[in-house]
């Protein structure tokens, strides 16, 4: 019999996962934190939670971790935009992890799954986009494909297995506790440190991670099974706009706006970066798929559904940026190359 006050968070040492653990503890919920490497315990210092080994590609880990659990927050997934073998390292892991997680949850008698998807799994053909517009039909980026297909699989499989599943789709998360820079935070750090040689004319969605964590907790009780909820800012923010806001917030360290290249030239540069990245085995600064998909496209969202149902109230972009940069100031080791 599941304990009604025990929640499992997968990917609990990641940015959203760890802040979600903290939010649940503030609500008095007993938390089991699933992590791939339990010896990496820095994210859990001072937190009264149970830490267990959990690799979403290992069914035995999932089955053990879900015993006695009422609610699963499925946060753990591969969050990287590039890999040498993207099909194997990104797509297959996210698809396999999703299937096994839901099968293990059903077998363990879990009541509800809050499935963390991404704004990558939205259709940008018409803006502002909403949950009702379906999925992204553009198949040029493997990470985006993995988020679209794994969320669709989660909703379909949950229905088959009789699981209550609510899907949430966060924006570009920044702010609060983080123990190593992920893709989102690294982009902001690069902007703040003046490490962008060019302006790719791509819009980002700076959303505070604590606002999303609060909405995830609300989704466990107020969300409707089978429904999707966008957890993002209503309007995207360009690199230029981000630099402008940072210069207003931190005038003591003025940033220069890098030049913006015409789309064909930018695409050629991205191709060179990708080619070099494949040879060196390192992620390129820019990929052709992102130029093709998002150059000049302001990513705006209709978040009225999450506002009404989950009480989602994202703090303004400038507030999220101020807190995120403040956190980096307080933890300068995060900005050191590893």
Low-confidence stretches: none
Overall pLDDT confidence: 93
CATH architecture of one domain: 3-Layer(aba) Sandwich
Q: Which structural category do the helix and sheet elements fall into?
A: alpha/beta
Helix content: 40-55%
Report the top-level CATH class of one domain.
Alpha Beta
Separation of the first and last Cα atoms? 45 Å
Main sheet strand line-up: 3-2-1-4-5-6-10
Order of helices and strands: EHEEHEHEHEEHEEHEEHHHHH
- The tally of strands reads 11
Outline the fold blueprint:
Layout (H helix, E strand, L loop, with lengths): L5 E5 L4 H12 L3 E6 L14 E4 L5 H7 L5 E4 L11 H23 L3 E5 L25 H20 L2 E7 L1 E3 L8 H10 L10 E2 L1 E3 H11 L8 E4 L5 E2 H11 L13 H18 L7 H7 L9 H7 L6 H14 L8
Parallel strand pairs: 1-2, 1-4, 2-3, 4-5, 5-6, 6-10, 7-9
Antiparallel strand pairs: 8-11
Helix pairs in contact: 1-6, 3-4
Report on the structure:
By secondary structure, the chain is α/β, with parallel strands linked by helices. The protein has a domain at 6-174 and 206-234 and 300-316: Rossmann fold (3-Layer(aba) Sandwich), CATH 3.40.50. Helices cover 41% and strands 13% of the residues. The chain is built from eleven helices and eleven strands. The chain has a seven-stranded parallel sheet with strand order 3-2-1-4-5-6-10, sandwiched between helices. Strand 4, helix 3 (86-108) and strand 5 (112-116) form a beta-alpha-beta unit. Helix 1 (15-26) crosses helix 6 and helix 3 runs parallel beside helix 4.
């Amino acid at each position: 019999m599941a304990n009604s006050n025990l929640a499992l968070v997968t990917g609990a040492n990641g940015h959203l996962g760890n802040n979600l653990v903290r939010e649940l503890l503030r609500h008095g919920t007993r938390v089991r934190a699933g992590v791939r490497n339990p010896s990496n315990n820095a994210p859990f210092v001072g937190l009264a939670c149970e830490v267990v080994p959990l690799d979403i590609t290992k069914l035995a880990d999932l089955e053990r971790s879900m015993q006695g659990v009422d609610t699963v927050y499925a946060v753990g997934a591969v969050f990287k935009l590039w890999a040498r073998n993207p099909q194997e390292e990104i797509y297959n892991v996210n698809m396999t992890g999703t299937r096994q997680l839901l099968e293990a949850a059903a077998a363990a008698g879990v009541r509800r799954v809050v499935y963390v998807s991404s704004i990558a799994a939205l259709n940008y053909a018409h803006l502002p986009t909403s949950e009702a517009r379906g999925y992204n039909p553009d198949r040029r980026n493997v990470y985006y494909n993995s988020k679209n297909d794994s969320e669709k699989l989660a909703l379909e499989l949950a229905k088959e297995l009789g699981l209550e599943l609510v899907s949430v789709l966060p924006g570009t998360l920044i702010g609060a506790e983080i123990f190593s820079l992920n893709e989102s935070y690294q982009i902001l750090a690069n902007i703040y440190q003046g490490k962008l040689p060019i302006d790719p004319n791509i819009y980002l969605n700076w959303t505070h991670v604590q606002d999303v964590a609060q909405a995830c907790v609300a989704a466990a009780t107020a969300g409707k099974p089978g429904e999707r909820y966008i957890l993002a800012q209503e309007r995207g923010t360009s690199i230029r706009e981000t630099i402008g806001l940072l210069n207003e917030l931190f005038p003591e360290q003025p940033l220069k706006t890098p030049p913006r290249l015409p789309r064909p030239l930018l695409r050629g540069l991205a191709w060179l970066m990708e080619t070099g990245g494949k040879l060196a085995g390192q992620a390129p600064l820019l990929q052709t798929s992102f130029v093709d998909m998002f150059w000049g496209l302001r990513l705006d969202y209709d978040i009225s559904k999450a506002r009404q149902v989950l009480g989602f109230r994202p703090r303004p972009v400038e507030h999220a940026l101020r807190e995120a940069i403040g956190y980096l100031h307080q933890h300068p080791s995060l900005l050191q190359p590893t």
